[in-house]
Amino acid sequence: MHNPSPRATGPTPGTSQPVDDRGYVALVRAQASVLHLDLDAFFAAVEQRDKPSLRGKPVVVGGVGGRGVVATASYEARQYGVRSAMSTREARSRCPHAAFLGGRFPAYREASAAVMGLLRSVSPLVEPLSLDEAFVDLARADLPDLELTTVTAFAEELRQRVHEVTHGLTASVGLGTSKFIAKVASELDKPDGLTVVPPGTERDLLRPMAVSVIPGVGPATDERLRRAGLRTVADLEAVDLDELVRLVGKAHGSGLWHLARALDDRPVVSEREAKSVSVEGTYETDLTDRRLMEGLLTRQAGEVAARLRKHGLSGRTISIKVRLHDFTTLSRSSTLSSPTDATATIARLARALLADLDTSGGVRLLGVGVSGLADWIQDDLFGESDPGAPADDDLPMIEAPTSRRTTWAPGMDVVHAAMGRGWVWGSGRGVVTVRFETAQTPPGPVRSYPIDDPDLAPWRLPLPEHDA
DNA sequence: TCTGGGGTCCTAGGACCC
DNA sequence: TCTGGGGTCCTAGGACCC
């Protein structure tokens, strides 16, 4: 849990603030200035909005194939027990007369963008959690104050404006002193409702609730806690930190300890950098043909690479995911010495990783991912302390770069600089990865630079196209 | 023919380095 | 007779979220 509070050496005697065993005191806002907004039955609602004949009827959006699952069920379908993540097969048996739709993501993205745009017009601090959910920090909104009456009226108006900009979708909203409380609150009056949790009432609200209201408590943790006799948040509150850590691990235990006391100082964060990009697919029938699997991995590698390039990213770790016929899920990964966004590199590695796996029983899912994405501002990957490295001032000037490119090793496509004095091997668009090696100097460290960094103007290298 | 797809975060063990 | 210890990186798997 994020916790900027000052550190003490041990529990602070005589304070009323709860303190964990390392002496951290968690702070909570004094006002209900965190807003959580959740669009109701989002995908299904968009379908009903766009197709009037579906209004008032059960609609199920999700995978329509033999191995599909439900993404969203309209409230009419929920009356028949259809739920998110249920197999479509089961949903069909529970509600055969529902409309089963595969989903129209461009339409969902458009509606989502309208809502997120509205939220951002209200506060610069908006944190989307998915297409249909976001936190908004009202402490950064243009409000006269953060009194309950003020934020309540504001939230009601916001819900009305969501209805307008989406041409008829409804949203449920929660307001509270933290992300956790706001999120719990938005669940309490669904659909099309607003719940405000007044500061100071959080713990009374939580105590009777099941432990599963706490984000991060899924089926596995729920079961562990249940076996320890912990069913409600009140039960959790009565257990000390050591015991929780013993039960569910360090990070999780500490999180539970704090959240059970409504201690949550996680900030609303508007810009989060992607950490990985992946593509996977489940096939209607299990795959047994290795050549076919290699072909599918190659195609997925191309999709991943295209998405990396589209966002100006590249990454060093290539992973594959393989789900066997019996649902056993395997992953294998390999890390390159420099980042790539090249289809050929990702595909080659993905196929090599598959080669080590026994897939003779059949494969239901294949996937390819890239992680370890380059963060070029902070990342000086290979440090300054490389002894054989030429000093920056000695680095050769490369001004009119790059003509020929040859594959040297996986992940390293060597580009011969036109000036001829150094090696440049590059991968990411918008980034150049350079290793300097001249007649006068031994191979230097690998360095990566953003192409647009003005301080590196001499290195402004138009990279060759990859995988044309 | 039970069990999607795209993510995030955590844990644990081993390698490696100082 | 005793064989450190901490930090970081990498890999594999698992839980969880929407």
TrEMBL record:
UniProt KW keywords: Cytoplasm, DNA damage, DNA repair, DNA replication, DNA-binding, DNA-directed DNA polymerase, Magnesium, Metal-binding, Mutator protein, Nucleotidyltransferase, Transferase
Segments for region (Disordered): 1-20, 442-468
Entry cofactors: Mg(2+)
Compartment(s): Cytoplasm
Residue numbers binding Mg(2+): 38, 132
InterPro entries associated with the record: DNA/RNA_pol_sf, DNA_pol_Y-fam_lit_finger_sf, DNA_pol_Y-fam_little_finger, DNA_polymerase-Y, DNApol_IV, IMS_HHH_1, Rev_trsase/Diguanyl_cyclase, UmuC
Catalytic residue positions: 133
GO molecular function, one term: DNA-directed DNA polymerase activity
Top-level taxon: Bacteria
E.C. numbers: 2.7.7.7
Every UmuC domain range: 34-218
Catalytic activity: DNA(n) + a 2'-deoxyribonucleoside 5'-triphosphate = DNA(n+1) + diphosphate
A Pfam family recorded for this sequence: IMS_HHH_1
Record-marked site positions (Substrate discrimination): 43
Role this protein plays: Poorly processive, error-prone DNA polymerase involved in untargeted mutagenesis. Copies undamaged DNA at stalled replication forks, which arise in vivo from mismatched or misaligned primer ends. These misaligned primers can be extended by PolIV. Exhibits no 3'-5' exonuclease (proofreading) activity. May be involved in translesional synthesis, in conjunction with the beta clamp from PolIII.
The protein's assembly and partners: Monomer.
Family affiliation: Belongs to the DNA polymerase type-Y family.
Protein name per Swiss-Prot or TrEMBL: DNA polymerase IV
Gene name as annotated: dinB
